[in-house]
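Quick question, first post here. What does this chain look like in 3D?
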Amino acid sequence: MRLGRVIGRVTLSQAAPSLQGARWLIVSPLGRDDLSAGPGAAAVSREPSLVVYDDLGGAAGDLIGFVEGREAAMPFEQPTPVDAINGALISNVYYHPMP
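> Answer (accepted):
Ran it through. Tokens below.
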């Protein structure tokens, strides 16, 4: 699982039948440098943003835990074309970098 900040939403005019009614978030992944900068740091990291399937109700500015790859499609009963899924809404992060 990786951490990321929600920076927007995606609205689809057409979607695969298995994804009708799905919510999609634009997420900026956070790395070590972003976490050590503290809560007042910029919302957008240097890493490319990605689109994440959301079933938990994430909103702009939220910190989330997301999973990518094969594990992202595991919650679905049928094969579903999902590359990343929101797995957690995160309230607080306490990060202490190692010297």
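The mean pLDDT is 83.
The helical segments are 32-36, 70-73.
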